[in-house]
Amino acid sequence: MNGAPPRFWSIFFELYESLPRQGPGNRACAARALSFCRDLPSTPTVLDLGCGVGGQTLHLAELTSGPIVAVDSHAPSIERLRAAVAARGLSERIRPVVGDMAKPGLPSASFDLVWSEGALYNIGIENALRVCHGLLRSGGYLAFTDAVWRKENPPPEVKASFEDDYPTMGRVPEVLVAIERCGLALIGHFTLPDEAWWDDFYTPMEIRIEDLRGTYADDDEALAVLDQLAQEPAMHRRHSDDYAYEFFVVRRVG
User: Fold this and answer.
1) pTM (2 decimals)?
2) What residue ranges do the domains of the chain occupy?
């Protein structure tokens, strides 16, 4: 984020790493996306790219029965996931790894399912789709979410809020074109419902921000950062009709 206060990122991670998940989504949406993957093996080999602290990784462990590799570049998030995995007795199934999504260093054509919620845009959507294509076995599935515009001309306030983080954000038809260009076949897609933004993401975020306001009650700089972070859920309340998260399920056919 350009022009962020000096302590922005330390407080950002203090907030985000404490949340159940770091973006929109929930178990019901994960189950719905998996329902599109009708020909998965009974114990599929799964890769979760850009897993964060692993809220969706743990859902995948409940909804599938094979091994899962979970990759994220932020080491503290991976450490938190490792602790959660150990606490649930899932260390034999889930392997959290610190790695680069663009170059994950994993064997090509080795996964039945690649999963990524709200993360592929970080390396450019087409580049990410090509990386995923290379990791999938023939006939394997990719399930991913991506932020999309719902209107051609969103208000300047909303446009500006995405400008730093995702300046190339497009609409659903543009993502579908990218999918086709990358040699992947669309199986289906759907828009995440509003509860997928609030139940495990924005509601816990707002509660945690208030907790941190108490922690930093005498720290004007930290409070200013928290005010900045609180703008995101507040903007979603006002402008949720202008943008959405879309769940796409595609397949490598060759």
Assistant:
1) 0.94
2) 22-193+243-252
